[in-house]
Amino acid sequence: MTKLYACLGSGNCFKPWLAMHQLGQPFELILIDVLKGEQKSRAYLEINPLGVVPYLETAEGRGIGESNAMLWYLAENTHLMPADRAERAEALQWMFFEQSKLEPFISPARFFSTIRPDQRDARAADIARWQTSAEPGLFRLDAHLQNRRFMLTSGYSIADIAVFGYVHVLEEAGFKMADFPAIKRWASAVTQTDGFRPLASLGSPASKAA
Ligand SMILES: N[C@@H](CCC(=O)N[C@@H](CS)C(=O)NCC(=O)O)C(=O)O
Fold first, then answer.
1. Which of 89, 110, 165, 197 has the least C-beta neighbours within 10 A?
2. Which atom of ligand 1 is least distant from the CA of 68?
3. Is 34 in the pocket of ligand 1 (CB under 6 A)?
4. Could you state, in order of their start, the residue ranges of all structural domains in the chain?
5. C-alpha torsion angle, residues 153, 157, 160, 163 (rounded to 10)
């Protein structure tokens, strides 16, 4: 059976978890507590030497790191992968955009604002810098989503799941969703797609397997 190693609350872990739910792909969820450092334990490093989550182990025992690479693997030959060659490249374009212009800034700003609020004051200058760094990407995304329902013309795909992972929780990183009306409309449309489950339900007993 496919195994997903993941932690609670993570937008990156949420991506393959949501994709497998939406594809009806059975999987075993193995929770790793990163706040306790379990991702650096000897046992976990034997599974994923990079010591991070998410990590996907295929039914055949192959390991895949990087949330967006997992989406690519899971989506092959499914409705979440665009049929058109140029649109597949466009999906990749937005997945790289997410990992270079959004996630590296929204994720730590959210972590030290919401997940570890005890460190918010000590990291205030870093949070402000991450917020400033995320702004151009968020405005670019908002412009892209004007007059569109989903990231790609052909419809809902792994590009949406990749971008949604952290963008839908941008308020937890100190942004206001009202400042990004097209993102707000799109995020709402994503929650209406078949089989959608919210990030908050990752790890709840009912979601342990699709
Ligand atoms: N680019 C990677 C990011 C992986 C990553 O940094 N994961 C975080 C949780 S979201 C983690 O494991 N942090 C703990 C650590 O770095 O020790 C992905 O998309 O999968």
1. 89
2. 19
3. yes
4. 2-79+196-207, 85-191
5. -120
Q: Which pLDDT tens digit goes with each residue over 55-73?
A: 999 999 999 999 999 999 9
3-state SS assignment for residue 202: coil
Q: pLDDT tens, 5-52?
A: 999 999 999 999 999 999 999 999 999 999 999 999 999 999 999 999
pTM of the model: 0.96
The rounded distance, in Å, linking the Cα atoms of 13 and 201 is 12
Q: Which two tokens stand for residue 102?
A: 């959004």
Q: Indicate if ligand 1 lies below 6 Å from the C-beta of 48.
A: no
| 2-79+196-207 has CATH 3.40.50.300 classification | no
